[in-house]
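User: Assemble these into one structure.

Assistant: Restating your components, then the assembled model:
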Amino acid sequence: MTRAVGALLRKELALERRTFQVVPAMALFSLTTLIVFHFALQQDDVEGRLAAGVLTVTLLFSAILGINRLFVADHEEGGFDGFLLAPVDRTAMLVAKALALAGYLLVLEVVAVPAFGLMLLEPALTGGAVLKTVVVLGLADAGIAIVGTLVGAIAIQTRALDLIVPLVGLPLLLPVVIGTAKALAPVFAASGAEALPAKWLVILGLYDLVFGLLSYAVFDYLLED
Amino acid sequence: MAARAIELQGLTRRFGDREALSEVSLALDEGQTLVVFGPNGAGKTTLLRVLATLLRPHRGRVRVLGRELPREGWAVRGRIGLLGHASLLYRDLTARENLRFHARLHGVGDDRVDELLGVLGLGGRADDPVHTYSRGMVQRTAVARAVLHDPPLLLLDEPTANLDPQATELVEHLVGPSSGRTRVVTSHDPVGGLRGADLALGLRAGRAELLAPAAEIGREAIGALYA
């Protein structure tokens, strides 16, 4: 399993390094979305629940772009079949793709969160608030990566890839949206970062666990004819 | 007596309402070559994909390398080399990167990759992306991928398509009759296809219209499949 995950992950990163098809698109989309929010909200700065919502939605919509592209290279020229013919646990693809997507989300956030801080957030994020944001986004990324990989694997086998990912993915990711927005709202409070709400962190963690186990159980069947 | 490599009894595979393969039965011993003829859409590629464990049979019995499919598909994956119309290569990776990726999945060392790149005359372009290759070079890389793990069973969909005579000679000892492997080869060429074959199967609209030892088949019988 480890050998296969390593090979798949290495291939995934080599493809992205060669083509830049996923991460730059996600990052540019997030910046564009933040600019749109800036004008649409008609506010120079946002805080609290509104700020948490803006950041969560921006990251989620950018992630959808990445999920759309996640299996495209494997589908073209039959790379999927090459993997299916190998004597390896097929769940290795779930693990490798989820790890790759989590990595792409991390790079996205390195671009999008500072841009969000500069363009919209007031007050600015301080050291403690940054750490709290990292914790929340880490839990959100895990959920998006797992569910995104599952949905991407379903969508690539249909003719309506661009439609299936948002139509199936967004409803499935609603708990992540709610949990992330609720957990980040006190971090972005106007009066300065407050404590993280443990309840929402637990909900995000449970979501990751449940969907991680569910994806592990069904992924093999998704790849079957 | 050689063991059976492939046994099909009443194999049927549908796509929607259409039967791509209908009640196909045959047996092939280890080390033998089956050549499959038939016009486009006759079911040749579907047959290869069922044997490769990539498609499930809808009816009938399929045994490959002594294992029942699809139930024991896990046991034969890794013992099959598939060379299809799609190269199964990542176009934006180089030949070396593609082969090393598959080598790792199959637990094969990088020295085997270097050996095959040399044998197939790809060494000079091994570090260029596959999308910059000619169709013949893509086909040679795909051949290397198919035999990388030294599989006892080769499933070859027109293996020398896109290859010039020199390249055909290069791949011949890897996937040709002299490779010593069990082979299932699709072909439209009645002369070249029958060379080195033990058994010939003629498919039309998914049905086996012709099944006989290759030595007993005439060009007219194959031509009739395309009429």
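Chain B touches chain A through 29 residues (CB under 8 Å).
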